[in-house]
Amino acid sequence: MVEIGSRPPGTPAAPGRAGASGETGETSAASSGQLSRRGLFGGTGVVGAAAVAGMAAAAGVVTWLEDREAEAAAPPPSPPPGGSAGTAQATRQWVLVFDLRKCEGCVTQDKPPQCAEACNAEHFVPAGQQWLRVFRVEAPGGNSYFMPRPCMQCENAPCLNVCPVAATYRNAEGVILIDHNRCIGCRMCMAACPYGARSFNWSEPENPPGATFAQYRPEYPVPHRRGTVEKCMLCAHRTKDGKLPACAAGCPMNAVYLGDLVEDSATNGKEVVKLSRFLAENGAFRLKEELGTRPRVWYVRGHGQEYGRPVDDRRLAKEPRAWQELQKEQKKEASSASHTTHMG
Amino acid sequence: MRAIRPIWGKTAAPAAPVAAMVGAAAAVLPVPAYPRADASGAAAGIIPTGLAARTARLEAAVLRPLTHTSRTWYVWTGFLALAVAWGLFAYTVQLRRGLAVTGMRDVVIWGLYITNFVFFIGISHAGTLISAILRVSHAEWRRPVTRMAEVITVVALMVGAAMPMVDLGRPDRIVNLLRYGQVGSPIIWDLVSITTYITGSLIYLYLPLIPDIARCRDALRGLIPTWRWKLYSVLALSWQGTPEQHRRLERGIGVMMVLIIPIAISVHTVVSWIFAMTVRGGWNSTIFGPYFVVGAIFSGIAAIITVMAIFRRVYRLEAYITEKHFRYLSYLLLVLALIYAYFTIAEYITTGYKLAEGEKHLLEALMLGEFAVPFWTFAIGGTLVPILLIALPWTRTITGMVVASVLVNIGMWLKRFVIVVPSLELPLMPYEWGVYWPSWVEISITVAAFAGFALLFTLFAKLFPIVSAWEVAEGWAVEVDQGLAAAHGGGADGAAAPVWAALGVDGHGTESGSNGNEG
């Protein structure tokens, strides 16, 4: 909590930004009072969001206005008062960090990317969609690396600005959610997203048995609905309960870190690191930084070397299985396990 | 100015012609005041008998399709209705099974529907904008073609506005646009702009229609079914052609024609911003607003020429829609083609010179790759060939100009396709190229959209005069009036009118249009 005013993000464009908004978020929130969730235009939308997110401080939501305020040397704020999530005073601002030095696309394990499969199983991701998709990026020297792409939870989110019905919005913890009861399926957000992180339910998605009785929430959008847009929502339902997102929990290499800008820490479930130092010291970068979307997902460069993936490994990642197959496999394993125990 | 001077010279004061003409029109010249045209005109003895006969012939030609229906008409309308019905069936399939029945998928998220949307909104600029510009600039020759242009606008807007709704994943929630509309979204800009445009265009179509509807009410009684006569009676709003009614009508038209121009420009600007407000290669362009507006007017003029040729042929309007109308509109088309070509070159050369990563792939796909055929069909067949057809004197025949217009329409549809689809196929993440091929549902609905456009047009032309008869007659009256005023001035027949009369800078236009500007 003491580190709020420090410089968490490590990329060239990022230093000081989260800190700056940490200093000014309070001011803007205090002065604007109860601003609505969305402003009129993109810029004001960000400011409006900052009013909410700014209460949490260190939101990293920066507009040029706030930059200017920061230059006017606003005094460092007192640590944000604690409050339960869901009110305007969120205590967390979630980010993800992918340590690509540890990510070898699960090819050395001869498995499909486990993060993607964990995601599929957790959310019953409809067939044909991959909310978290692992790309294989070829580098000029003939080597390649894997790049998992979730939703970037951008601070200046293009999808959020273009939605005609405000069905996609940012929650108090900085996560972009979709209200599937409101989405009209125009797909403008998909056109606007520079990362291709959004998917559409082109046909009636298959829902798990019992999903009909599930209580739909934007934080856990089950049952899935036809004609609406879907995407990764950083497992808002899990982080709320203090759990890692499914991808982080499912990664056998512990390459996925869940971070919190407020507390300036991140964890992969095995170790806890100081977020700002981790990003800075490892030269973390964000995708398409030049677009100014300010993603909340960082990458540490690498090609899985920590787990022995050679530079010239040409293997492709396997296609992640859908949740139906995963459930089938689970049942089979369970039954064979009980069988063996019975035998034993 | 050159053409105006002699007329002014013959009259008492510079302001006199206007006042005199309005006065004459109100007191003596009954031509615009339809019902009494023949009787009082002849009685007053001022109008040459030729004018009354001409007006009668015009009316006969214009009203004939309203009472006589050929078998071909039924076959044609039935064919269109079938095509529309098939499209509706395809849409029910889409409603039942979701957008999965289209060729669109997660990477290429928009396809034919959005292409059609941009295309139809584009040709909607035919009407209102061009008719308004010609009215504002007092181009006299506009009179026989304004009605068609305005109908194109209304019909194209109806079809065009339906397209994004067909494209929606949840059409059942369309009311959310009103309940939760977020002003920052380009889609809301479009919603506001297009609904305003539809409203304005309907009014702008309806106002000049009132005297003609009144004429239908008076002339067709007993010749048409009662419901139609009642329809005319209601829509005619008790029009009797009194000077006061004329004054108010002209004033209304005058206000609408000025209002409609910025509205029309705003419409296609915000349509382009649906694309230009994203960071995708090919869409992320600052010139998209004006580029789309020019493209819209370009395709709109081509649409007018095409429609004009069809009605001229089918309704035997050769006496009223002459080679001159094709030629003047073709000149406009030529100018717009050159501007559009200029914009196209400006757009592609600035990206092609730098070859930023995404743009490079896009340009390759457009010019050499997957989209080379539609792209070059547009560039050569839809722009260069029409330019040559109109510019070269020996191809500047009615046939040549109509061929040019049809080519422009095809080319502009293809152009919209290569704006929408390739930018979506362009990978955002490594190697994620999309593919798109429209499904039978999309093709059926597209065909139905065009058939629906033709059907609505056909039905309109069956119910209402497709040529604004009162305005044409008014134009003749103005000519006669000028002929009388100018006495020996000659030139009332317009035979010696210079080519640039197309732009409405001749004396006739300036004089006659003043009617409308009085209010």
Percentage of residues in helical conformation of chain A: 25-40%
Please give the most extensive interface between any two protein chains, plus how many residues each contributes: A-B, 50 and 44 residues
Count of helical stretches of chain B: 20
Please give the order of strands in the largest beta sheet of chain A.
Answer: 10-9-8-1-11
* Mean pLDDT rating of chain A: 79
CATH class label of the largest domain in chain A: Alpha Beta
Bin the helical content of chain B. over 70%
Provide the gyration radius of chain B in Å. Answer: 25 Å
Quaternary assembly: heterodimer
Major sheet of chain A: size, sense and barrel closure? 5 strands, mixed
CATH fold type of chain B:
Formate dehydrogenase/DMSO reductase fold
The CATH architecture of chain B can be named as Up-down Bundle
Globally, the shape of chain B reads globular
By CATH reckoning, the class of chain B would read Mainly Alpha
Number of domains of chain B: 1
* Envelope shape of chain A: globular
The helix/strand series of chain A, from N terminus to C terminus, equals HHHEHEEHEEHEEHHEEEHEH
Question: How would you characterize this protein structure?
Answer:
The complex is a heterodimer of chains A (344) and B (519). With 344 residues, chain A is of the alpha+beta class. Chain A has helices at residues 17-32, 42-55, 64-71, 114-123, 158-162, 188-192, 236-239, 246-250, 275-281, 323-343; strands at 94-99, 133-138, 144-149, 168-170, 176-178, 199-200, 229-230, 256-260, 265-267, 272-274, 297-300. Helix content of chain A is 28%, strand content 12%. In chain A, the strands form four sheets. In chain A, strands 10-9-8-1-11 form a five-stranded mixed β-sheet. In chain A, strands 2-3 form a two-stranded antiparallel ribbon. In chain A, a hairpin with a 5-residue loop joins β2 (133-138) and β3. The longest helix of chain A has 21 residues, at 323-343. Chain B is mainly alpha-helical and 519 residues long. Chain B has 20 helices and no strands. The two termini of chain B are 23 Å apart. Classes of the chains: A alpha+beta (344), B mainly alpha (519). Chains A and B meet through α2, β2, α5, α6 and β6 of A and α8 and α9 of B.
